Amino acid sequence: MSQHSIDAYDLPQRVASYDSDMDLMHPHRKTMVRVALEVMPFDRAAPIRALDLGTGTGYFAERFLACFPNSAVLAIDGAEAMASLAKARLGPLAARVDFRVGDFRRLPDLTAGSSGLDVVFSSYALHHLDRAEKQAVIRQAVTLLRPGGWFLNADLVRAGSPELETRFQALRVAGIVERAGGRDARFTDDAATRRFLDGLEANEHDQPLTFPEDLDVLRQSGLKSTTAFWVEYREMVSGGVA
Question: Pairing mode, if any, of strands 117-123 and 145-156?
């Protein structure tokens, strides 16, 4: 991960189009967040304390706060523009959120005074880290959890072979073109879509791990009972217990 990756999300044009782009490029985001929330073994009325790593526009946080009406969230993102958009999305729910802007590779500095959390969750954020960075961040996050607390991540993975990755990418591109329906100049056909995705991923420094590598990072970070709760092609909901 580089400062360039963070800066990519502080551009007004990127922030303005983020959620609509996510709907086009990641139509399973709603399902993935729903699965992560279903997995959380908490009483709906309990005063759950959570950390949201890379809160973005607050999509996951909004659904978490609605699901657990007595919960509170510490939301971290590297881009001030994203945090501002999240506050606007959350509206009255933002009263239960402590927003902190900064690079989550420096998690101890950003979470000073926080411990005994019930859950740490993240979506579409940790794939910007290389393996060593990802493991370090998750290990730091695990130290903030109470014994028996949960870590859940809804994010990208890559296929374990070039042949599968090529096929998964072809399915991905075809799906985006179909959903765009000719209404977006970036996604008029397969070639245009591939060019856009290649540029986006290079600009944002995407570094997804394979399915086995991703689960191994969770284990090496100190989590128990690690597993994948949901997988489709290049997207996975995974997690474990502290």
Answer: parallel
- What percent of the chain is helix, strand and coil (3-state, nearest 5)? 55, 20, 25
Question: What residue ranges do the domains of the chain occupy?
Answer: 3-157+208-241, 162-200
Task: Tell me the pTM.
Answer: 0.91
In angstroms, rounded to a whole number, what is the distance separating the alpha carbons of residues 89 and 82?
A: 10
Residue type, 149: G
Inter-residue contact 220 to 135 (CB < 8 Å): yes
Q: Contact at 8 Å (CB) between 69 and 93? A: no
Q: Which fold has domain 3-157+208-241?
A: Rossmann fold (3.40.50)
State the CB neighbour count (10 A cutoff) for residue 235.
Answer: 21
Q: Which of left, alpha, beta for 155 (phi over 0: left; psi -120 to 50: alpha)?
A: beta
DSSP 171: H
Three-state secondary-structure class, residue 14? helix
For residue 51, how far is the Cα from the chain centroid? 12
**CA-closest candidate to residue 3, choices 82, 104, 87, 153:** 104
Which of 82, 70, 165 lies closest to 125 in space, CA to CA? 82
Mean pLDDT, all residues of the chain: 93
CA distance linking residue 8 with residue 17, whole number of Å: 13
Amino acid at 39: V
| Digit-coded pLDDT (tens) for 22-51 | 999 999 999 999 999 999 999 999 999 999
Secondary structure tally for the chain: helices H, strands E = 10, 7
